[in-house]
């Protein structure tokens, strides 16, 4: 290294020759799949993907060739007006489960939480749950009506909505059925499928109380009916108290307008409450003096107990956490110190502590919670664990600021029975076996 | 409305018939551009886009037809493994300026901040600045070397990097040249071009001090050279003090792995410091006992003063703010109460206050700063202003937690002269003329 001009010694300065197109990308496009593409791109270097993956952090294992990417001019700034992830990340996608529902229009897909970092979910992979498919709304023709027990019923266009003061807050959105297939045992081998009906974004919108001020709620108005503009006409009853607290009519997520599948151009946001109530493509809010008892809050989204009665209006999401690495999709590859990483959340406010166990819950240690820890938002946690090739039972346990402690499945079922589909916030167990593979198991 | 079953009265329940494909989307694809597409989609409803846009918030102006989107099943959950914005948002893209640079590979494009909401910048539109184009790195073959004044030089693979504890923090990244074309007057008519060399995302990565602990910096090691893996071999000197404070080696932004144009798979993050130092595709860190004085920190990225001398190592970004609506791209369409919205930031920590003026800086009022306000992160502000059709001079002024106040251009030039390209953090003025159009103007 020449310290006077900083010129590198490996020939990278021979750049400046435009390349017609990237060999790595061409190889990727030719082979299609992400893993195959990565291997093919590796082969350009004269070094196969798996061989490179096995290399240790040791100068002697460096590829002997200069990587091709130092030798070419890359694409210019006009190439991608709206960018996309690297082709090497093509495996980070939402996935659905074909046998789960009769049609994809009334179904769900799952966020790939095993491949995410931090607590923001990228808009491209926020899980979807539809009752009539992704509705495509033209924002110019879109209208929101507010009627019922109000002084002045009104209809708002998006231009009207944009003239009110806005808030931008990070909130998690969890489907009440997240982890629901696990009630009767370990069913699904992958954290994407056991816990992936969740996302967390920065929602921007107008506080609902600001909009309600415009119409004037009458003294006997105590409930709202929120109605979606899709073909399912999804609607839910919401108590006025929540509407006046932290509810929001959101038009943006993570800086840009809502994605069509997440309610473009306007959705209801009910921080900390179950996702099905966050009505998408919201077209009408009616103010009434009692709940409506719609199909979605009676025959659906209620929790059937052992005695045949059902819990209903179980809106608030209890504290919960899950380890997203290691997990079935992310085996332990390394003997020695590894990271445990995961996500925790509570519909009641901030996460106070997360504990992790490597012995199935007999002993617990405190995980780190890196800043910022925000209320009703996903919270990252991490901790070290040393793996010596023996079997390990990994668990995490969240505690929120109200003191609520995430329960075991056994404790939860003692109260709720085994009929329910919804609100399973119990502790998840991953078995790391002697090969480092990770399995979804049920303890006790 | 029948309150017993919640069935809507407008015929939307006639849904359930699968449609082959969306008329709105087909119209959009046929016409290509976003605005034309929106108008065409409006025509499906028998109501043109502009007519609908002019409709007031009044039931009498509701479109007489039921919107088509309530009458069809939308796309199912398998349709988009990785989602994209609505076709109606096709105007929200990065843009470059053709005359600005000789080639697009050594150029910049600009974040469309006039169309964003909240402080998170979506990954798809984070501005790019390249010296050799977008380098496409294969993460399997990627290596980071640390050498120089260290006890044990080491080479790290991405798998090695993933085994360290991580942080996830929101930081803005601003190019030192942002607003640089405005030094000598009002040059560019659009906030995307005057202030769009900025983005703000949740970066996830390993604190640099953790990696330096692995190699052991020798007692006389006081500076780092960070070297990029692209064809330009971009490198910059960084004082060890910053590396041990809040510097990070980041692999993810907004939850997913870095985009190729933002340094995939690993980049340096230097919170609050000018963007060119956040070396992308970082391949090597050398520890030394003095700065290297590379080309990028001597002939470039220094600030030429009136007396011919240059300020150098001007790393920290001073407090700055700008109104992103109204702005040249967002005229005032409405007489009466409108929102002023904008962004503020400081490389020294938190924004404490933002003031806005509607009379060119003679009178100031306090803007709202909605939670959360985070250090070295974009901060949203908003305030009402009433427009009666007269000319208005809009300004914003940021104050950070150190007490630093964003200066006028006149005050800045008294100290810095007019030769500089970099570090223009002066107050921006927008003239709202009598038609509601907004112009970039220079006062005094």
Write up this protein.
Two copies of one chain form a homodimer. Helix content of chain A is 14%, strand content 26%. Chain A has 444 residues and is an alpha+beta fold. Chain A has three domains: 76 residues, no CATH class; 200 residues, Sulfite Oxidase, Chain A, domain 2 (Alpha-Beta Complex); 122 residues, Immunoglobulin-like (Sandwich), CATH 2.60.40. The N terminus of chain A is likely disordered. Chains A and B meet through helix 2, helix 3, strand 1, strand 4 and strand 5 of A and helix 2, helix 3, strand 1, strand 4 and strand 5 of B.
**What is the makeup of the main sheet of chain A?**
5 strands, mixed
Largest interface: A-B, 150 and 150 residues
Give the class-level CATH name of the largest domain in chain A.
Alpha Beta
Report the mean per-residue pLDDT of chain A as an integer: 87
> How many strands in all of chain A?
22
Q: What is the CATH topology descriptor of the largest domain in chain A?
A: Sulfite Oxidase, Chain A, domain 2
GO molecular function, one term (chains A, B): sulfite oxidase activity
Organism (chains A, B): Rhodospira trueperi
Keywords (chains A, B): Metal-binding, Molybdenum, Oxidoreductase
Pfam families (chains A, B): Mo-co_dimer, Oxidored_molyb
């Amino acid at each position: 290294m020449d310290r006077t001009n900083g010129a590198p010694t490996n020939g990278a300065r021979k750049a400046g020759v435009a390349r017609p197109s990237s060999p790595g990308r061409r190889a990727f496009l030719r082979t299609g799949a992400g893993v195959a593409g990565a291997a093919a791109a590796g082969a350009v270097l004269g070094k196969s993907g798996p061989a490179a993956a096995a290399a240790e952090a040791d100068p002697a294992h460096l590829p002997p060739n200069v990587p091709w990417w130092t030798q070419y001019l890359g694409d210019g700034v006009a190439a991608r007006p709206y960018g996309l992830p690297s082709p090497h990340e093509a495996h980070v996608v939402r996935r659905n489960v074909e046998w789960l529902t009769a049609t994809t229009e009334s179904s769900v897909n799952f966020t790939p939480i095993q491949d995410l970092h931090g607590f923001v979910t990228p808009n491209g992979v926020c899980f979807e749950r539809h009752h009539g498919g992704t509705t495509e709304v033209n924002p110019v023709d879109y209208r929101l009506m507010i009627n019922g027990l109000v002084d002045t019923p009104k209809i708002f266009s998006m231009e009207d909505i944009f003239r009110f003061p806005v808030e931008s807050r990070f909130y998690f959105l969890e489907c009440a059925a997240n982890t629901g297939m696990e009630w009767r045992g370990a069913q699904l081998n992958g954290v994407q499928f056991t816990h992936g009906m969740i996302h967390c974004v920065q929602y921007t919108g107008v506080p609902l109380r600001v909009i309600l001020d415009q119409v004037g709620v009458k003294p006997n108005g105590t409930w709202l009916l929120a109605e979606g503009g899709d073909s399912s006409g999804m609607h839910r009853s919401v108590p006025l108290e929540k509407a006046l607290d932290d509810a929001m009519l959101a038009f943006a997520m993570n800086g840009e307008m809502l994605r069509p599948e997440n309610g473009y151009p306007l959705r209801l946001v009910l921080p900390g409450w179950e996702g099905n109530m966050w009505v998408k493509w919201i077209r009408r809010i009616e103010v009434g003096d009692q709940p409506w008892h719609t199909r979605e809050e009676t025959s659906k989204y209620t929790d059937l107990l052992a005695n045949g009665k059902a819990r209903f209006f179980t809106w608030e999401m209890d504290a919960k956490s899950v380890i997203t690495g290691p997990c079935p999709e992310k085996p332990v590859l390394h003997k020695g110190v590894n990271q445990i990483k995961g996500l925790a959340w509570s519909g009641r406010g901030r996460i106070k502590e997360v504990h992790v166990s490597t012995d199935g819950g007999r002993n617990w240690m405190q995980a780190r919670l890196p800043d910022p820890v925000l209320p009703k938002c996903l919270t990252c946690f991490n901790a070290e664990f040393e793996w010596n090739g023996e079997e390990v039972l990994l668990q995490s346990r969240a505690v929120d600021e109200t003191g609520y402690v995430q329960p075991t499945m056994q404790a939860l079922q003692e109260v709720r029975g085994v009929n329910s589909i919804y609100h399973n916030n119990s502790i998840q167990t991953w078995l790391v076996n002697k090969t480092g593979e990770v399995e979804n198991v049920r303890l006790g």
